[in-house]
Amino acid sequence: MKTVTKSTPKDMCEITCFDKEVVARVQPKMEELDRVELIFKALSDATRLKVTYALTLEKELCVCDVANIIGTTTATASHHLRYLRNMGLAKYRKEGKLVFYSVVDDHVHQLVKIALDHSKESWNK
Q1: Does residue 101 contact residue 87 with C-beta atoms inside 8 Å?
Q2: Which has the closest alpha carbon to 115: 62, 58, 49, 70?
Q3: Domain architecture of the chain: domains with CATH
Q4: Model confidence over 55-83: pLDDT tens digits?
């Protein structure tokens, strides 16, 4: 009969202890992440990330352009663009019968660029 022994993974503490001062200093700051969580949630969807990336590559794009770029219907593209707008990542303007979207500010450009740069670095290691 084999004896099964539990072992602690190498990447886990073998005892429980924590620095009360560090926890007291850092823990209250976790509330600051509520809106950040929503941003990352919005960008965690592959289609919305593609839409956002496309919007960072051009000054603005028509809903029809976005639909063709990501290979979906205009209804689907419009849904994702509206979601990004509601999350504060995109804005729009209407010109006649066309609707054009763009990212709200340079922070969105930076988020996508930093993530893209990091993905290239981490995959090349």
Answers
A1: no
A2: 49
A3: 20-123 (1.10.10.10)
A4: 999 999 999 999 999 999 999 999 999 99
Helices (H), the chain: 20-26, 34-44, 46-57, 63-70, 74-86, 106-123
Whole-number Å distance between alpha carbons of 44 and 4: 40
Q: Which helix (H) or strand (E) holds 92?
A: strand 90-95
**Token output for 2:** 């084999």
Question: Residue 74: CB partners within 8 Å, gap ≥ 6?
Answer: 63, 64, 67
Q: What are phi and psi of 39, to 5 degrees?
A: -65, -50
pTM of the model: 0.82
Angle (nearest 5°) at CA 62 between 60 and 65: 105
